[in-house]
Each structure stands twice: as C-alpha cells, then as structure tokens.
Amino acid sequence: MLIYIFQIILLIIFFTSIIFLMLWTIGNLKNKVPFVTSPNAILKSIEKVIKIDDTSVVYDLGCGDGRVLFYLSNLKPKAKYVGIENNLFPLFLAKISLFFKKKNENKIEIKKGNFFNQNLSEATHVFTYLYPSVIDELLPKLEKELKPGTRFISLSFKFTNKKPIEELDLGRGKYKLGRKLYIYQF
Ligand SMILES: C[S@@+](CC[C@H](N)C(=O)[O-])C[C@H]1O[C@@H](n2cnc3c(N)ncnc32)[C@H](O)[C@@H]1O
Questions:
Q1: In CATH, what number is assigned to the domain containing residue 176?
Q2: Is 127:59 a contact under the CB 8 Å cutoff?
Q3: CB under 8 Å to 130, separation ≥6 — which residues?
Q4: Predicted TM-score (pTM) of this structure
Q5: CB atoms within 10 A of CB 96
Q6: What is the arithmetic mean of pLDDT over 143-168?
Q7: Which residue from 55, 61, 131, 186 has the least number of CB within 10 angstroms?
Q8: Which residue from 85, 96, 39 is spatially nearest to 62, judged by alpha carbons?
Q9: Is residue 181 one of the residues assigned to a domain?
Q10: Cβ(58) to ligand 1 under 6 A?
C-alpha cells in the first residue's frame, strides 16, 4: 500500500514538473527575455541605489518571481510596489509568494500582462533586468510616460541612446550574471 502511495506522489511530482517546464519554455519563447532572476547577492545593492522612501511607487517591468519587489517591500513596507509579468511560470511563483506574504501584501500588486501595454506614469522608481534591445524599444514609452525625476535602475544592460547618471560595478566574477547596475534619471 505504502509503495503505491509513494508511486502516486512521484507521478504527481513528475507531471507537475513537466507542466512547469512547459510553461517556462512557452513563456521564454514568447518573450525576447527569458525568466532569469536577479541574484539574491545583489538585492542589497539594488536597494542602495534605487533610493525609495515611504511615498515611492516602485515598478519592476518583467518582475519574474517578484523577488526584487518582495525584498524592497520588507525594507520599506509603506511604499507601493507593482510587478508586471507575462510569463505564466514566474507569474505563478510571484502570486504564490504574494499569497504567503503576511505583512503589507496590500502594498504589492503583481499584474499579468505585457509591460508595453501598461501605463507607467504612476511610477516614481522603475527596476528592470531586460536585454538592451528591449529597454531600447521601451525608451520612447518611458520618456513619454515617466514623471520627471523618476529613477530607473537597469541590471546588467544599458540604453544605447541614454546616458546613465551613475554606474555601479557589483564586483562579481567575470562569469557571473548581474555584474553592473545602471542608474538613470528621467
Ligand atoms: C531576466 S527576467 C528578470 C526577472 C526579475 N525582474 C528579476 O530581476 O528577478 C526578465 C523577465 O521579464 C519578463 N518579460 C519579458 N518581456 C516582457 C513583457 N513584454 N511583458 C512582461 N514581462 C516580460 C520575462 O518573462 C522574465 O520573467
């Protein structure tokens, strides 16, 4: 009897993993940028350069599993956080984390959708970890919608036609992801 229960549990784990793998693959095929998370080791540096306060409205465009927003919201629970994600797999992870978050969950919104179709005018701070071609494509929208003074932090990649006000080398190894933060002011 016990062996059957064990086999059923194994089958459930196997099929759940297959479904997640399919969702991850389909989502990555749809987007130009795959779901890769910001390394936990650099979250503190993001917090240092983004400079949010209690009145901030922080957007993560392509928020993945939401870890950047959740990390920041633990430090500054009164600020508002909006994550936009269109890949079902990370979206599911972000929603699950939000569900289990006990404090200040009403200050965090995880939206399903394409950030090109969302109005960003409410943001005071924006974080992205996207490819250069995607942030370049986003630039006209950002210039049109973001309020003057909005702080924009990009991990690893910079705009071709906009100069950062600051760059922070995170001092990570040559082969590690997430080695630089580019800070922009709109
Ligand atoms: C490199 S991951 C970064 C995830 C998260 N921001 C982080 O730093 O941990 C980029 C994410 O952007 C999402 N993405 C790419 N293009 C998108 C779009 N047009 N609309 C919404 N999400 C998008 C991808 O699905 C992926 O999860």
A1: 3.40.50.150
A2: yes
A3: 33, 61, 62, 138, 154, 157
A4: 0.88
A5: 12
A6: 97
A7: 55
A8: 85
A9: yes
A10: no
